[in-house]
Amino acid sequence: VQLQASGGGLVQPGGSLRLSCAGSGNIFSSSIMGWYRQTPGKQRELVATITSGGSIRYAESVKGRFTISRDNAKNTVYLQMASLKPEDTAVYYCKANRPVTPVYVYWGQGTLVTVSS
After folding, report:
1. Band of the pLDDT at 33, cuts 50, 70, 90?
2. Which of 2, 3, 43, 71 is geometrically suited to a Cys-Cys bond with 108, CB 3.0 to 4.6 A?
3. Are 106 and 4 in contact (CB under 8 A)?
4. H/E/C letters for each residue in 6-37?
5. Pseudo-torsion of CA 43, 49, 105, 86, nearest 10°?
6. CB neighbours of residue 87 within 10 Å
7. HEC secondary structure over 49-72
8. Band of residue 56 on the pLDDT scale cut at 50, 70, 90
9. What DSSP assignment string belongs to 78-104?
10. Beta carbons of 88 and 113 less than 8 angstroms apart
11. 8 A C-beta contact, residue 1 and residue 23
């Protein structure tokens, strides 16, 4: 199973960016998909998750600004980010996990988002 994240880059404060994470293999539709982010010296933190049934959870810091969605037909999860702030600067990672048998956790490689003027 591979997860390929893309869409990171440099954006000005207040701008928007959309991240994508495409998954290979046959696990996508039954996985909880999530986006996490990490800055140097800090632990990786949850940004947003979406279950196979469409239930969504956001970190308080991104509520109202970020939107997570998934397209099971394309094995892809998205993170639409708006009203970006400098504190959103981080490496963003996608994750696929299943907490019940068969249990698994897969991480994609990170994509860097830099919010700066």
Report:
1. very high
2. 3
3. no
4. ECCEEECCCCCEEEEEEECCCCHHHCEEEEEE
5. -30
6. 10
7. EECCCCCEEECCCCCCCEEEEEEH
8. very high
9. EEEE-S--GGG-EEEEEEEEESSSSPE
10. yes
11. yes
**β-bridge mates for residue 45, sequence order:** 37
- Cβ atoms within 10 Å, residue 59: 15
Check whether the bond before 102 is cis (ω within 30° of 0).
yes
Question: Using an 8 Å Cβ cutoff, are 65 and 75 in contact?
Answer: no
Closest CA to 47 of 102, 8, 99: 8
Residue 27 has pLDDT above 90, yes or no: no
Model confidence band, residue 39 (pLDDT cutoffs 50, 70, 90): very high
Structure tokens at 100: 């019940």
- Cα angle, residue 21 at apex, residues 104 and 40 outer, rounded to 5°: 85
80 class by beta-carbon count within 10 Å (0-12 exposed, 13-18 middle, 19+ buried): middle
Model confidence at 102, pLDDT cuts 50, 70, 90, reads: confident
